Amino acid sequence: MKVSYQASAVGRARLGALVLFFTEEGLKPPAKLDAELRPALEAALTLKDFEGKSGQVHSFPSGAAQAQRLVLVGLGKSG
Question: What are the two backbone dihedrals, phi and then psi, of residue 61, each rounded to the nearest 5 degrees?
Answer without folding.
Answer: -65, 140
